[in-house]
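Note on ligand handling. Small-molecule inputs were canonicalized before submission; formal charges were left as drawn, and no protonation-state enumeration was performed. Where a ligand contained multiple stereocentres, the stereochemistry in the source SMILES was retained. For pyridoxal-5'-phosphate, this procedure yielded the string shown in the input block below.
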Amino acid sequence: MKVPLLDLKAQFNPIKSEVMNAVEAVFESQQFINGPQVKELEKQIAAYSGCKAGIGVSSGTDALLCALMALGIKAGDEIITTPFTFFATAGCIWRVGAKPVFVDIDIKTYNIDVDKIERAITKKTKAIMPVHLFGQVADMDPIMEIAKKYNLFVIEDACQSIGASYKGRKAGSIGTIGCFSFFPSKNLGTAGDGGMIVTQDAVLGEQLEIMRGHGSKPKYFHQVVGGNFRLDTLQAAILLVKLKHLDSWSEARRSNAAKYDNLLKSMHSIVRPHIEPHNVSIYNQYVIRVPKRDELRKFLTEKGIGTEIYYPLSLHEQTCFKELGHRKGDFPESEAAAAETVALPVYPELTDEQITYVSESIKSFYK
Ligand SMILES: *Cc1c(COP(=O)(O)O)cnc(C)c1O
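Structure output:
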């Protein structure tokens, strides 16, 4: 049996004619930039996330970058974030000249440890950038409380968590700004790169829109220096088709996760995902923590099972950040997660036979 980590063809086949019709409509209009589909998608994603405004952008990375630029984050500022995330989170902070200040994770959820945030705050701190890793929202109530106390912005890196909720509130709707990615492997993925910024603040929404288009308003008059962070009409048109299916896809991922939980629960050496009772995860990844991780991975590869390591090196240990002066041991929970976790296939179209095969293969490795 073959079980890939992700099977995008299985997702595409049943919606192929809908997607191709949407693509054809864009070609017929030839409105490749700022077509009406972009505005429509912004409206729908804002509503879907419980936000006032949505600003389509070219990627999740550009969502984060544009957010930092619109908030005026600059050289000398410090932004608190997690070292256990995709590179873009800290990369964007660096690119605006600010300093990423890492705070270790809670190993149970792999999200930022809120009890350690306050001691990382200095006079230079301007924002907290929590990441909702693997589809589960970080502990936002204490984060918002700290932000209020110290007058900080909160930028939610919700790139892996569109549609997830925290105490009934949607990912991206709690902080100052929320950022989504439509990279093909995310729950809502497009045919290339794409992203969206959401906010509850209509004025900030306008500033983000200006920043997305070279800082120009009106056209060819620039109050600020922005960039070209636009979302293609083609991508928006495809996303409008796929958004209708997002909740059922995420539900199927939750159901697959529950099946793994059930099949793996007798294995005491395996730490399964811990979802806080107040959270609804969208399981962008189903990540387990195991002994002999690399050997297990090799074994599963030989069995035809795709896995991935998200992420093999904690960001404080990356060469490009060496001038931050960190060393191994600075963030032990993040380092442990990087060394011991592996993601299993959890995509919506997985069959029960595949889930059983993956689980049985893992069990046979540890026997
Ligand atoms: C995917 C991702 C990003 C970047 O999104 P792109 O669309 O690939 O640029 C940023 N942060 C996290 C946590 C991500 O998972």
